[in-house]
Amino acid sequence: MKATRAALLAASLVLVSGAPAKAGETASAPTALALGAKAPMATTKMKTANGKEVSIADVKGAKGTLVVFTCNACPWAEKWESRIVELGNDAGKKGIGMIAINSNDPNVNADDSYAVMQTRAKERGMKFAYAYDATSGIAKAFGATRTPEAFLFDASGKLVYHGTIDDNADDAAAVKDAYLANAVNAVAGGKAVPVAETKALGCGIKFRKSSAS
Amino acid sequence: MQDGPAAGSLHRLPSYHPAVPTARFLPRLALVAFLAFTLGACARKESAIAQAPDSLRAEDLVFTSVTPDSLALVVAAAGGKVTLVNVWASWCEPCRQEFPELVRLARTYEDEGLKVVFVSADFTEDLPNARKFLAAQGVDWPTWYKKGSDQAFIDALSPRWTGALPGTFIYDAQGKLRDSWEGKATYAKMENSVRPVLSLPPVTQVETDTTSKESRS
Questions:
Q1: Could B165 and A20 be called an inter-chain contact, meaning their C-beta atoms sit closer than 8 Å?
Q2: Any domain includes B175
């Protein structure tokens, strides 16, 4: 028992101390857009839920731009959806342009189709563009991997926040740190964001097969 | 649904620890019998039904919460020469698709020292579904569901993981991360990732269209 306990302790120390990122480990995810970078493919037009053709540059606000990769079919996106809508509608009032982007291949889940986006945008009262990334190319260019995943750019177009919505998808009432809302408020006030990079569990983006664009 | 060890539970090990090995050894005999059957070429499906899953009831599964802080203990307590951690959810289609292959991997390499640790990321209301899925898949060894901070959980497994599901992580006996990837994998990929860590030669060509580069050091 003693030996087992010692082994457990030793192994736990290795893990908890973050030792995993050693020589043997491999990068498994595409590299996401770095802080300070500009939005890629900012002039690429996408069809929005209300039938317009809109690019990221088109929604740019005086104070900043918020890009959120989300979708209709992911339970995490659904859990966060009302918070995302509230945040997006609110950001608009603060001079930060918001665009939500669905990059999922609807052939994987039919609920991620453009038609469902139209219904969803209406039902949830989205006052911002909910755009259909028909090639998944925008998500790829951003290095986004999951839904929902947010990228916030400041007035000069530099990425100042990348990550999740807040620290509790499951329970809005139990949120301790509303990362994205705090970042939006900071950018709207011309201040530095309190936490620039966060992570959360999410559904992997269902990228279209590379040639099917 | 009982709760697992809480954060910072190192000193509470004695009360928590016995639950793991007890449950862990239970399936062993069944597995040996199961493997004997599966060695026959086409008998796999029938024997699988005849052996484990038939009597496996969702409510009997050992399915416990794991926090970011107790994750390392869970991996260590699995006691594998190689421990594969797979983070999945009952609603996650790619997770469900690769799941049978992970179960097959666990059974095939059990005797070589592979332990497969499933961690469900299901929301509380979906845990009964997760339990049903585990039973249907014949997972007759203890598995876990995530509790607590996502960010800490992600970083405890690998700081380089973005949090997209499914996520798979290969640790050696020292608890060192040897390989990891996001998204579903083929059986060949899983096998070629764990075999070198088990000191076994590769058997199949690694596919090139996955998002992960293999470690071979």
A1: no
A2: yes
| Residue A116 CB neighbours (<10 A) | 18
Q: Indicate whether B174 belongs to any domain.
A: yes
What range defines the domain where residue B195 resides? 8-216
Q: Is A23 helix (H, G, I), strand (E, B) or coil?
A: coil
Closest alpha carbon within chain B to A143: B162
- Other Cβ atoms closer than 10 A to A65: 25
> B180 - beta bridge partners?
B169
Does the residue B154 lie in any domain? yes
Phi, psi (rounded to 5 degrees) for B15: -80, -25
Query: Can you tell me the distance from the alpha carbon of A101 to that of A56, in angstroms, rounded to the nearest whole number?
Result: 10
B76 and chain A in contact, CB less than 8 A: yes
Domain assignment present for B2: no
3-state class (DSSP) for residue A51? coil
Nearest C-alpha neighbor of B158 from the set B54, B56, B97, B84: B84
Question: In angstroms, rounded to a whole number, what is the distance separating the alpha carbons of residues A84 and A68?
Answer: 8
Chain B hits for A30, CB-CB cut-off 8 Å, are 211
Phi, psi for residue B86 in degrees, rounded to 5? -120, 120
Q: Is residue A102 classed as helix, strand or coil in its secondary structure?
A: strand
Distance (Å, whole) CA B211 – CA B209? 7
Q: What DSSP string runs through B42-86?
A: TTHHHHHHHTTGGG--GGGS-EEEE-TTTHHHHHHHH--SEEEEE
Q: Output the tens digit of pLDDT for each of chain B's 217 residues.
A: 444 444 333 222 233 333 333 334 444 434 333 333 333 333 333 334 334 555 788 888 999 999 999 999 999 999 999 999 999 999 999 999 999 999 999 999 999 999 999 999 999 999 999 999 999 999 999 999 999 999 999 999 999 999 999 999 999 999 999 999 999 999 999 999 999 999 999 885 555 544 444 333 3
Collapsing DSSP states into helix, strand and coil, what is residue A177? Answer: coil
Give residue B187's identity as a one-letter amino acid code: Y
| Chain A residue at shortest CA distance from B150 | A200
Name the domain count of chain B.
1
Q: Say if residues A137 and A154 touch (Cβ distance below 8 Å).
A: no
Report the CATH number that the domain containing residue B198 is assigned in CATH: 3.40.30.10
Phi, psi of B62, rounded to the nearest 5 degrees: -90, 105
Strand A64-69 and strand B143-146: the pairing is unpaired
Q: Do A199 and B150 touch (CB under 8 A)?
A: yes
Run of H or E residues at A76: helix A75-93
H/E element holding B143? strand B143-146
